[in-house]
Specification:
Elements lengths: L22 E5 L2 E6 L2 E6 L2 E5 L34 E4 L2 E6 L2 E6 L2 E7 L4
Antiparallel strand pairs: 1-2, 2-3, 3-4, 5-6, 6-7, 7-8
Amino acid sequence: MTACNLPHHANHDHVHGPGCGHVAVKHDGHVCYLHDGHMHHPHGDHVDEHALTVSATNPDACTPAHACGGHAADHVHGPNCGHPAVPHGDHVCYLVNGHLHHPHGDHCDDHGPLETV
């Protein structure tokens, strides 16, 4: 295996790349693929597990006034909700119209932009 300190996604047979069927996003100067709640970065002979860091660009603040119109007010984010899951800090957000939604109580918090490729 290629020398790498990052966590690896074990037994990953799928090959990520353009047209592979997963949403590609820009992350720290490279491309990652959103796959089943994971953020995968193909690296040498394996796939690294990445997550967005909480930052000024992608904060983890509560924003109850956020209203992007990317889904109905009663939409519930979760597995198979139609929005790709994105690991962000110690929680999961969902990519909606180019930015991160974090379900929080009766609203979605805006956790900043995430650029797709």
